[in-house]
Amino acid sequence: MPNFITHQDWLAITPLLIAGGGALIVLLVDLLWPKHSPRAVSLAIGIGVLLAAGAFAATTYGRSYNAFNGGFMLGGFAVVFQEIIVLSAILSLSLFGTFGRDDRMAGITALLLWSTTGAMLMAGAANLMTIFLGLELLSLALYCLCGVADRAASQESALKYLILSSTASGFLLFGMALLFGATGSVTLASLMLPGLAANPLYWMGGGFFLVGIAFKLSLMPFHVWSPDVYEGAPLPVTAFMSVVTKAGTLAVFARFAYALPAGGKLLLPFFVIAGVSMIGGNLAMLAQTDLKRLLAYSGVAQAGYMVAALAGASALGMRYAIYYLAAYMFMNLGAFAIVAVLSGEREEGAQIAAFRGLGQRRPWLAAAMSFFLLALAGFPPTAGFLGKILILAATVNAGYAWLAALLIAGTAISLYAYFKVLRLMYDPHDQPAPGPRTSAPLAYAGAALCAAFVIIMTFYPLTPSNVLPLVK
Amino acid sequence: MGVAGSYPLLFAIWLVPLAGAIVNWAFGPQLKRAAGIVGCVAIGLPFVATLAAWGIATQSSGAAVGANQHLLSWMPGFDFGLLLDPLSLIWALIITGVGFLIHVYSVGYMWPDTAIARFFAYMNFFVFAMLTLVLSDNFVGLLVGWGLVGLASYFLIGFWFFKPTAVAAARKAFVINVVGDVAIMFAIFMIFAKVGSTSFVTVFAHVPALGNWLFLVCLFLFIGAAAKSAQIPLHTWLPDAMEGPTPVSALIHAATMVTAGVYLVARCWPLWNASHDAQVLVGTIGGLTALGGALLGVAQWDIKRILAYSTMSQIGYMIMGVGVTAYQAGVAHFFTHAFFKACLFLGAGIVIHELADEQDIRRMGGMRLRAPVAFFAMFAAVLAISGFPGFAGFFSKDAVVFGALEHGFPWLYVLGIVTAGITAYYMFRLFFVTFFGTYRGDLDPAQVGVTNPVEPAAHEPAHGEAHAPAWLMAAPVAILGVFSVIAGYVMIGSNSPWNRLFTQTFPSQNLAVPALSEGWTTAILFIVMAAGIAIAYVRYATPAALADAPARLRAESQRMPAVLVRLFYFDDVIDWLFVRPSQALGRFFGSIFDPDVIDGAVRGVVRVNTELGEVVRGMQTGLLRSYALVIVFGAALFAVYYALQGVAH
Question: B631, A224: Cβ pair inside 8 Å?
Fold first, then answer.
């Protein structure tokens, strides 16, 4: 068994090294700058580093390589997820125009880069160790990020996230240990060994592993942390968390699910809670008064949709899940960008009441917000609509018609919740609530980019075809 | 180079009219009458480009003709592109060529109208939509064009929106056309389900894949074609559509849009070739429409309505031609018809203009002196539509009628011959009553049998301003008159430009030699036509008849058979079958079902949802320990399931 690390291995993780090392550069510049490095410098370095990492990752698209003895699998799948993660990180950074204290900006940027590194590692992780490493790298940085705002709610959210997430990690680690006991190996490929089904350890291990994954994907009933944490965390961090955590974890789940021989029985409870999330998440949206909480519950349901696409582990389902993830990134971050534009340091804009009469005060912003909400609800001609159609096709083809039915029911419920916000924005009887006018050019640019992609993706539905196999 | 493989100007042909529409729409108030120039240029440029393509295409005998420009790919099976093959070339040529002449004419016709920019914006938009329809290389693009021409037609029929009759006619046309649109959509669904593609090339290469759905696909495609081409029983909108300005009637409801059904069947010839049932269906409907339209044309007095029914009848010929798989003949009749029918409409427009919007031919008479250009041009066109030897319609009508016999449909052959006689009769009736004798407009309307005279000039605004130069309207009519004579000459001989163009488009068929030769057919047709003209002459144009015209017209009006006056009761049947039940249904839904059942259910759902939302939110206490408990509880449920599974295996 070759135990040494080759040149190829280093090449495979170069994007990660760029992102992680870039964080150090941000900190170093901050250190060397008289007093503190300005906000713009930290953000510029951060975005530049991410662009470099993304560009390098793109050059490896089309290659397939098992780095670190199969611990990190480089291939179409990993690259696509890494690109989505990097792009979300860039868009999230662009929202930092007005949030957070200037003197903390370097630290925030560095933490966000490390968190991104963790998610990128998850995208390629192909054994239990690297999965856990990536997950913890992602999470540890996020705990800190949740608490960077000078608000009690922010610190509370950080603490809640830390404790609950640790609980989930405990389940995950326990499940991994049992799986190791069943297979005698840490690689996901060993799950394909015959005769595993006779081993109770395999079942229990798989079950606890999935509990940990469900927590990170915030599927019901393991979602309880997300509304509180989303609400308390600084808005750009919430935006980052809502997409990047899901992207990384979805990659891990996909690799796990596609490694199982027949999938079926081991994954069934997971698809059940995905269905529960579609209904429950959308129902819970109805009662929200805070837009970040609303988007948290929306995220619960949307994660359910993405998982549903993977039901049956079909090649088409994988492509459609990736399509929907990319669409979700643009729709969701677009909505966050609008909230960011409307918000000051105290995040008043996140209150749904703050949108009252927005259609008269800021018609363009209101139109953009309506567009993103309609996209999230799945209206044509947006990527959200096409994505849902594709997922429906995939689930029905895979024989999970009940998931498709739940998806349709959940969508119907969600319409009401999204339209509540729309109605508020365009209610002519309501006096416009006075709102702050912040200047956040980066956030505007981010929102415009998201809107453009939500439209473009509808007409050029790029669903990468060379993402399989996920495990070798 | 050329039109083999690629034709760079194809995009210009397609998009310049759209640009014209946008300019006219956006800068209408600034352009004023210059809108007409913009409108004409936006059609003239594509015409030149199309003409060049025609020149190239007819030169390359036997060579592959056709340019295909890819536009964009959507999902697998949805590739959009433009296709210029002989079939779409002919249509594009007529749309831009005749369209250009009609645009020029419109400048004169619409001169006094204050909304001239809006008019030309719609007209240019229509041409763009029609080009989308014929230039698409796939069914979806065709359907998009199909829908857009319906929309443009709706705008233009209702152009004088202050006339309630115009608005009602526009609505009727739109509704019936949407029936057709939906039918085509169903056909596309079926095609995609079986073949997995919407592009013409792929679908026509896999006709057997349609299996026993083939006839259904043809049926639904033809419902769309029938709605657009005013075939029985979906024809009732066309005569009403004459409420639009006369150039609109000429362009949309005579020369181009209403022939889209012919285009669709000709385009889908591989489907029709494979389904004999579809041939019988389409051929029969076409033949019946030809006869029915001609019969109804006999009973009309409104000059535009006579022309509308004759349009319906002539399209019936074309549909019959393509239906019996005599595709080249059907397309040829479209080609010649476009010239002589546009000529007839525009000539009628000159007469109507001259008489300050009078449209009833009983109140005309003697117009050969007041509108000489219209007289000579329309004389040529009337001879052409009657199929007089040497005139354009002769070549194509002959081919259609003989084609029916040749392809084994003798009863359609008989229908075609009978219709030809009636056509000659009512067209010459129109011609004699309008242009011969003395002017009857200053007589008391009741004296010539008009019971409910329309007060002229009541519906068109702002007339009486300075008139446009007369040549603006006369020149296009004269040119079309010339083409009504010569358009058929491109089809003479086996090595004619027409044959060179179509030699590879449609399949050559091995047909049994029919009982009657083509020469006999021509002779029979000529005799029948001559009889029709003779009857019209005896009834309307002998010196005695001319002297006694008012009394004779009054008597004819009173004795007209009710079945023809009420248009075979089609409108009444449709009213009873569809309109009244729909209205009753609408009342039921509006007053009972909607407020109580639907709204009640919606309110119930909202209430239940909100309450459930509160329940879910109730789990959100903000307390860490309760959250942890929820997670552990969920994990416990998982553990139970997996423990059971582990034991079970």
Answer: yes
| Helix or strand run (H / E) with residue B4 | strand B4-5
Cβ contacts (< 8 Å) between A416 and chain B: which residues? Answer: 606, 609
A283 to B624: CB separation less than 8 angstroms, yes or no: no
Tell me how far apart the alpha carbons of residues A243 and A202 are, in angstroms, rounded to a whole number.
30
Instruction: Give the residue from A254, A243, A328 showing the smallest Cα distance to A73.
Output: A254
Contact across the interface for B649 and A286, Cβ inside 8 Å: no
Contacts of A429 (CB under 8 A, 6+ apart): none
Checking if the pLDDT of B453 tops 70, the result is no
Mean pLDDT for all residues in chain A: 87
A288–B75: do the CB atoms touch at under 8 Å? no
* pLDDT tens digits along A322-332: 999 999 999 99
Strand partners, B84: B67
Other CB atoms within 10 A of residue B129 CB: 23
Look at residue B70 and give its three-state secondary structure: strand
Structure tokens at B376: 């000579």
Q: Is A164's CB within 8 Å of B631's CB?
A: yes
Strands A72-74 vs A65-67: parallel, antiparallel or unpaired: antiparallel
pLDDT at A420 over 60: yes
Question: Rg of the Cα trace of chain B?
Answer: 29
Alpha carbon of A26: minimum distance to chain B alpha carbons (Å): 35
pLDDT at A460: 80
Q: Which of B613, B638, B646 is opposite residue A286, by nearest beta carbon?
A: B613
Cβ of B585 under 8 Å from any chain A Cβ?
no
Count of residues for chain B?
649
How many alpha carbons fall within 13 Å on the CB side of residue A3? 0
**A161 contact B CB<8A:** no
What is residue A81's predicted lDDT score, i.e. its pLDDT? 93
Interface ipTM: 0.82
d(Cα B383, Cα B340) in Å, to the nearest integer? 9
Q: What is the average per-residue pLDDT within B626-634?
A: 84
B 608-627: CB under 8 A from A: 609-610, 612-614, 616-617, 619-620, 622, 624, 627
Report the candidate in B389, B355, B351 with the shortest Cα–Cα distance to residue B371.
Answer: B351
| Contact (CB, 8 A) for B278 and B222 | yes
Query: Would an 8 Å CB–CB cutoff place A5 in contact with chain B?
Result: no
Note whether A268 and A257 are within 8 A (CB). Answer: no
More confident position, B454 or B56: B56
pLDDT, averaged across chain B: 82
Beta carbons within 8 Å of A187's beta carbon, 6+ residues apart: A70, A71, A126, A127, A128
With CA atoms as reference, report the closest residue to A210 among A241, A171, A178, A184. A171
Report domain extents, chain A: 264-464
Q: Do A164 and B624 touch (CB under 8 A)?
A: yes
Q: Is the pLDDT of residue A464 over 80?
A: no
pLDDT in tens, B138-177: 888 899 999 899 888 888 888 888 888 888 888 888 888 8
* CB A79 within 8 Å of CB A470: no
Per DSSP, the three-state class of B625 is: helix
Q: Cα(B11)–Cα(A462) distance, rounded to whole angstroms?
A: 26
* pLDDT at residue A348, as a whole number: 64
On the question of pLDDT at B44 being above 80, the answer is: yes
Beta carbons of A200 and B643 less than 8 Å apart: yes
User: What does the pLDDT look like over A138-163, one tens digit per residue?
Assistant: 999 999 999 888 888 888 889 999 99
- Strand pairing partners for A65? A74
CB atoms within 10 A of CB B136: 26
The pLDDT of residue A16 is above 90: yes
Task: Give the span between the Cα atoms of A324 and B327, in whole angstroms.
Answer: 47
